[in-house]
Amino acid sequence: MAENLVTRSPWPAWVVPFAAAAAAVVVWLIGTTLGVDPEARTGASVQPVTVVAALAAALVAGFAGWGARAVVGRVAKGGGEVAWLVLCGVALLVSLLGAASGTTPASVALLVAEHVVVGAVIALGLRRA
Length: 129
Fold this sequence. Notes:
- By secondary structure, the chain is mainly α.
- The chain has 4 helices and 2 strands.
- It has helices at about 15-35, 50-75, 80-100, 105-125; strands at about 40, 45-50.
- It has a two-stranded antiparallel ribbon with strand order 1-2.
- A hairpin with a 2-residue loop joins strand 1 (about 40) and strand 2.
- Helix 2 (about 50-75) packs antiparallel against helix 3 (about 80-100).
- The two termini are about 25 Å apart.
């Protein structure tokens, strides 16, 4: 008989939001060091994307992801790993709409990079949670 080879993540799930926040800060620091001024257009106004905003958004996304992963794990068959990754892909695509509101091509690129990195940390970090 085949054994169940699904393993749990070596990291506790509560670590993932903090790892996502750290990743967001690193990407933000790299972008601003390269001279990118991260700004987003919100309606008629332009708002700077500060390191605190990037950190807070990543924490919120990470904790929301942790909650969503717990629900998916209970509702879907077999732990819901595939359902989780599909949900993450959809959430990333929706979040990229916000990243596209950057005021310059460099700002858009930085915001997209932040969204993709944070999304990858959350998706992969909670995949087997």
